[in-house]
C-alpha cells in the first residue's frame, strides 16, 4: 500500500539537484616550447575540481594567489575551455557546441576584479551594459534602453548616467556598472572574481551588501572568488578552500569557520586578525613554512604535504580523496 506520508517526508528531505555541477574539472596550460617544438611545461592550474552550486546560494572559493580559483571561475563562465571534466548547468553540458556555449553564457555571467575590464572606455556605460542584450538579440533598441535604465537604478545609480563614460565614475561606481552589465541578461549564476579587492574598505562593504540585496531580489546564485576570508564568510552560504589546483575542504560557511578540519584551512583562518588586542596577542598563529609549489611541477601525494605540519610518508605517496567527513563537510586529508 502506498504511504503518502512517508513519500512526503522523503521528498522533503531530498536534497534538490544542483543548479551548477562541476565534475573532475581540469584546466592545463602549455607554457614554452623547445627549439624543436617539443612541449616543455604543462601548468596544472586546475587539476580535478568537484563543486556544486544550488539555485540562489553563494559558494565562496578561497585560497592563496596561484591556487587556481580565478582559472576555475573563467572556465565556469566559458572564457576558458576545460582540458577535461564536465560543467553542467541543470544537468546539461553546454560546452559541446558553439551554439550551446552561447546559450550557456547567457545564463552564467561574470563580474571582474577590475571593472574597467568589462567596460570599454570608448563606449558610454549605457552601451556597455546593453551589449550583452545586443549579442544575445534580446529585445528592441527601446527595450534595451529601458532595461539599462532599470539596471542602473537597481545597482544604486541613476538612469541619466547611461550617457557617461567609465572614466567619469569612481572605482565603486564602476564596479556597480560591472554588476549591472553582468545582470543585464538575467543570468542564473554570476561568477564574481575578487570584485572588492581594488576598492576602499567602506566602498567594499557597500558593494558586498548590494550583491546580497540583489540576490534576495533576483534569486541569482553567486560563485564568489576572493582571498579575503572575512568578506567570503559574510556573503557565502558555503566555502570551498583551494590549494594548488585542488579543493582541500568544502563546508557550510559557519561550519568551516567554527570547525576547520584541514591543516591548510586552519592556517588560513589563523591569519585573520581579531579586532581585540588582548585576544589577538594570546591566540596561537599557524604559520606555513616554505613557498607555494609550482603548478607545473606539483608534489606527489597530497598537494599540501610540502608545507603541512602533520605530513607523513603516506601523505607524500598517496593523494587523499575529497570525502564527506560530516554531513555537507568534505575534506581531503588522510588524518581527519
* Structural Rg: 22 Å
Broad structural category: alpha/beta
Number of helices: 12
Main sheet: strands, sense, barrel: 8 strands, mixed
Q: What string gives the helices and strands in order?
A: HEEEHEEHEHHHEHEHEEHHHHEE
* Distance between the amino and carboxyl termini: 44 Å
CATH fold-level assignment = Rossmann fold
- Tell me the total number of β-strands: 12
Principal-axes geometry comes out as globular
Strand order of the largest sheet: 6-7-8-3-9-10-12-11
How much of the polypeptide forms β-strand, as a percent range?
15-25%
State the fourth-level CATH superfamily.
Answer: P-loop containing nucleotide triphosphate hydrolases
Total domains, how many?
A: 1
Return the CATH class. Answer: Alpha Beta
The pLDDT mean sits at: 89
CATH architecture: 3-Layer(aba) Sandwich
Report the helical percentage: 25-40%
List low-pLDDT spans: 4-13
Please give a structural write-up:
It is a single chain. This protein is α/β, with parallel strands linked by helices and 336 residues long. The protein has one domain (17-31, 39-331): Rossmann fold. It has helices at residues 4-13, 69-76, 98-107, 125-135, 141-154, 171-183, 201-218, 229-235, 253-258, 263-270, 277-282, 313-317; strands at 20-33, 39-53, 58-62, 84-89, 92-93, 108-111, 189-193, 221-225, 238-243, 246-252, 323-326, 329-331. The strands form two sheets. It has an eight-stranded mixed β-sheet, with helices on both faces. A hairpin with a 5-residue loop joins strand 1 and strand 2. The N and C termini lie far apart (44 Å).
Amino acid at each position: 500500500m502506498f504511504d503518502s506520508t512517508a513519500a512526503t517526508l522523503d521528498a522533503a528531505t531530498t536534497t534538490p539537484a544542483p543548479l551548477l555541477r562541476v565534475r573532475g574539472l581540469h584546466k592545463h596550460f602549455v607554457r614554452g616550447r623547445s627549439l624543436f617544438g617539443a612541449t616543455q611545461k604543462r601548468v596544472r592550474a586546475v587539476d580535478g575540481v568537484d563543486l556544486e552550486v544550488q539555485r540562489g546560494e553563494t559558494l565562496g572559493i578561497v585560497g592563496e594567489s596561484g591556487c587556481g580559483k580565478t582559472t576555475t571561475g573563467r572556465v565556469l563562465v566559458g572564457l576558458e575551455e576545460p582540458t577535461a571534466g564536465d560543467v553542467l548547468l541543470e544537468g546539461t553540458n553546454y560546452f559541446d557546441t558553439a551554439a550551446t556555449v552561447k546559450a550557456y553564457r547567457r545564463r552564467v555571467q561574470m563580474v571582474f576584479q577590475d571593472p574597467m575590464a568589462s567596460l570599454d572606455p570608448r563606449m558610454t556605460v549605457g552601451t556597455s551594459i546593453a551589449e550583452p542584450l545586443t549579442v544575445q538579440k534580446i529585445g528592441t533598441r527601446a527595450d534595451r534602453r529601458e532595461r539599462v535604465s532599470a539596471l542602473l537604478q537597481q545597482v544604486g545609480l541613476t538612469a541619466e548616467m547611461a550617457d557617461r563614460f567609465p572614466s567619469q565614475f569612481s572605482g565603486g561606481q564602476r564596479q556597480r556598472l560591472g554588476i549591472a552589465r553582468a545582470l543585464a541578461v538575467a543570468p542564473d549564476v554570476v561568477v564574481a572574481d575578487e570584485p572588492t579587492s581594488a576598492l576602499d574598505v567602506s566602498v567594499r562593504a557597500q558593494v558586498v551588501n548590494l550583491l546580497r540585496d540583489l540576490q534576495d531580489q533576483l534569486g541569482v546564485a553567486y560563485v564568489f572568488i576572493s582571498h579575503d576570508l572575512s568578506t567570503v564568510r559574510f556573503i557565502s552560504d558555503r566555502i570551498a578552500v583551494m590549494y594548488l589546483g585542488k579543493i582541500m575542504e568544502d563546508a557550510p560557511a559557519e561550519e568551516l569557520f567554527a570547525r576547520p578540519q584541514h591543516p591548510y584551512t586552519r592556517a588560513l583562518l589563523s591569519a585573520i586578525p581579531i579586532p581585540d588586542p588582548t585576544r589577538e596577542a594570546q591566540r596561537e598563529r599557524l604559520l606555513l613554512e616554505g613557498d607555494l609549489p609550482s603548478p607545473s611541477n606539483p608534489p606527489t601525494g597530497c598537494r599540501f604535504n610540502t608545507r603541512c605540519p602533520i605530513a607523513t610518508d603516506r601523505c607524500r605517496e598517496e593523494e587523499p580523496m575529497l570525502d564527506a567527513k560530516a554531513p555537507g563537510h568534505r575534506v581531503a586529508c588522510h588524518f581527519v
